[in-house]
Amino acid sequence: MDKEVTKIESDDTSSVEIKVLLFARARELTGVPDLTLKMPSGSTTQKCMDELVLKFPSLEEVRSCVVLALNEEYTTDSAIVQHRDELAIIPPISGG
């Protein structure tokens, strides 16, 4: 009798869900204050931004000037997101 081996390498099982917080102009452009984003395991914050721009093309307007924070600490485009992380998209805020 042969045993069937299940590999856990499919896209469905190797994904993470993160909470994305949108501030200032990013919130205005998307119309939402936050959302849940499902990404493949090992995704970077840059890949998350790519996905967000696909979902909300208007974000392209602020993409080049946003600051990213991962779990309430400023981060880089190359940081890897983990399941249940919180990614904040913070555009420049003007005022006076």
From TrEMBL:
SUPFAM superfamilies: MoaD/ThiS (SSF54285). GO terms for biological process: Mo-molybdopterin cofactor biosynthetic process. C-terminal thiocarboxylation occurs in 2 steps, it is first acyl-adenylated (-COAMP) via the hesA/moeB/thiF part of MOCS3, then thiocarboxylated (-COSH) via the rhodanese domain of MOCS3. The modification 1-thioglycine is found at G96. GO terms for molecular function: molybdopterin synthase activity; nucleotide binding. Pfam families: ThiS. Keywords: Cytoplasm, Molybdenum cofactor biosynthesis, Nucleotide-binding, Phosphoprotein. InterPro entries: Beta-grasp_dom_sf, MOCS2A, MOCS2A_euk, Mopterin_synth/thiamin_S_b, ThiS/MoaD-like. It is found in: Cytoplasm. The modification Glycyl adenylate is found at G96. Pathway: Cofactor biosynthesis; molybdopterin biosynthesis. GO terms for cellular component: molybdopterin adenylyltransferase complex; molybdopterin synthase complex. Acts as a sulfur carrier required for molybdopterin biosynthesis. Component of the molybdopterin synthase complex that catalyzes the conversion of precursor Z into molybdopterin by mediating the incorporation of 2 sulfur atoms into precursor Z to generate a dithiolene group. In the complex, serves as sulfur donor by being thiocarboxylated (-COSH) at its C-terminus by MOCS3. After interaction with MOCS2B, the sulfur is then transferred to precursor Z to form molybdopterin. Heterotetramer; composed of 2 small (MOCS2A) and 2 large (MOCS2B) subunits. HAMAP family: MOCS2A (MF_03051). Belongs to the MoaD family. MOCS2A subfamily. This is Molybdopterin synthase sulfur carrier subunit.
